[in-house]
Amino acid sequence: EPEVTQTPSHQVTQMGQEVILRCVPISNHLYFYWYRQILGQKVEFLVSFYNNEISEKSEIFDDQFSVERPDGSNFTLKIRSTKLEDSAMYFCASTGGVPANYGYTFGSGTRLTVV
Amino acid sequence: DQQVKQNSPSLSVQEGRISILNCDYTNSMFDYFLWYKKYPAEGPTFLISISSIKDKNEDGRFTVFLNKSAKHLSLHIVPSQPGDSAVYFCAALVKTSYDKVIFGPGTSLSVIP
After folding, report:
1. Cβ–Cβ below 8 Å for A100 and B96
2. Domain containing A83 — which CATH number?
3. Separation CA A5–CA A27 (nearest Å)
4. Please, are residues B12 and B110 in contact by the beta-carbon 8 Å criterion?
5. What is the pLDDT of residues B36-54, one digit of tens each?
């Protein structure tokens, strides 16, 4: 069964450093997403991406965040200057059709720890 | 912003019995509701969805019921199996072009053998 692949599985970084979280969505999918889950809290929408541009973003997704699909297969989330409160599980997701019928396919997540 | 609520953080059920997970929402504009299951160290997995124009959808052991007037939905799992032990997220979306899904806080289900 096709998978969404995320790397690394765990990243530790110092506060103020830049991090790039990488995702390889399912190859024929058209819509891409980043979500995050702070420990003990709910899964929160960050951004959606379609047709090579951001289609929607939440208030969490401020100027420190950016997304890119540089080569048609990878989908990256960059945090320019990490803060302690950015520590969370970050989930990439993709869908080829209507999420209402098929849901998203999520990756296994990257645990980001900012120290 | 608590548009999707799951008021029970945890639930324990005996194997073979019915598990009922509840969810309430506040936004009457939601078009679809979804249930996801999540194991530790894995991403959420889509289980089942229901359109706001329906009141029931069934898929094997999983049935979702929607009561629009009460803004309430529930997921029934019958019979419950130990492998069903996971965190269950209720989620909802407004059918815009990009389908942003809003998740509830989750309910941790333990199925006891």
Report:
1. no
2. 2.60.40.10
3. 11
4. yes
5. 999 988 899 989 999 999 9
